[in-house]
Specification:
The structure is a single chain. With about 90 residues, this protein is α+β, with helices and mostly antiparallel strands. Helix content is about 15%, strand content about 25%. It contains two helices and five strands; from the N terminus they run ββααβββ. A five-stranded mixed sheet has the order 2-1-5-3-4, covered by helices on one side. A hairpin with a 2-residue loop joins strand 3 and strand 4. The longest helix is centred in the middle third of the chain and has 11 residues. The protein is globular, with a radius of gyration of 13 Å. The termini are far apart. The model has no long low-confidence stretch (mean pLDDT about 95).
């Protein structure tokens, strides 16, 4: 199943200049892994050394924060999508 991934413009350089791309997988966990396999430069921006999502990053599966899902082995279906949101702060 193909799933669309969208990134904030700040991360596009880590995905070959793309803000939107597709990955193919059967499950949400597989889609997250495929995203990092296709664009390994995203890994340090999204995850820490222990592969925990960084505090300033939210990843949504459809309209749900991935961090709050009890299981990432959710089967994908047509129309599913991933969206990465990155908090930006400054002074």
């Amino acid at each position: 199943m193909k799933i669309e991934v969208s990134l904030p413009s700040l991360l596009a350089d880590s995905a070959g200049g793309k803000r939107r791309f597709t990955v193919e997988a059967d499950t949400l966990a597989g889609a997250l892994a495929a995203m990092l396999e296709a664009h390994p430069l995203l890994r340090p921006h999204l995850y820490d050394e222990a592969m925990r999502t960084r505090k300033h990053v939210l990843i949504f599966f459809n309209d749900e924060n991935v961090a709050t899902l009890p299981d990432r082995n959710v089967r994908l279906k047509p129309g599913d999508r991933l969206q990465v949101v990155q908090a930006v702060s400054g002074g």
